[in-house]
Write a structure and sequence with these properties.
about 5% strand; 2 strands; about 200 residues; single chain
């Protein structure tokens, strides 16, 4: 489809992918990959630690962990392996979809000029501490999320990774700076472009 307005106006595309999300299922066409993953996926060491205590709270864990495990606990090891295999397969399906989108952008010769951000809204316990899903607990597994950005070819990118803290709040501010927009509203985030240029941001964050 030819759209001449693309020559004059920017394009914004937001692709929201629901997976990986319960209820899990094995994607069609991934049956062989499922068998391969089942041969290598086990359970985390912290699961075995919880199992050795009969899933009772350890002395160093807060009391509320009992409630977490009541609602988000998996106590059968095989059931947890099933969960982790299905989760990994859905992650691979997401990877396949994103790859198809990026390939199409390259085919349309839009890729080099675009900024692409890959982010997630939350993490997943995935069996660590015998917990799955997310909840009000603030383990790093839940609050640390992917944040990968592909910048336009016109923006220098000297450092492939930034070691100092970054936040999803920073994504909008980075987009604004790339677009040359200075919003009047107050935002809590900061642009990541200086960090990408210098290799580090504000460590005090």
């Amino acid at each position: 489809v030819t759209n001449r307005s693309l020559d004059e106006h920017p394009m914004y595309l937001q692709l929201d992918i629901f997976d990986p999300h319960q209820p899990f299922s094995i994607p069609a066409g991934f049956e062989q990959r499922e068998r391969e993953l089942r041969a290598v996926i086990g359970v985390p060491d912290s699961y075995h630690e919880a199992q050795s205590r009969d899933f009772q709270r350890a002395s160093y864990e807060p009391e509320i962990i009992d409630i977490y495990r009541r609602y988000w606990g998996i106590y059968d090891q095989q059931a947890l392996i099933d969960y982790r295999v299905a989760y990994a397969l859905q992650m691979e399906l997401v990877d396949h979809v994103i790859g198809a989108v990026l390939a199409k952008l390259k085919e349309l010769k839009l890729y080099d000029d675009m900024v692409v951000a890959f982010i997630s809204d939350h993490g997943e316990m995935n069996g660590r501490r015998a917990l799955v899903d997310k909840g009000v607990y603030l383990y790093p597994d839940i609050i640390r999320v992917p944040l990968v950005m592909k910048l336009p070819s016109s923006v220098p990118r000297e450092h492939p990774t930034v070691d100092t803290p970054a936040s999803l709040l920073d994504v909008s501010q980075t987009f604004f700076e790339i677009a040359g927009i200075r919003p009047e509203a107050k935002f809590d985030g900061t642009s990541l472009l200086p960090a990408i240029s210098n290799g580090s941001g504000d460590a005090n964050r």
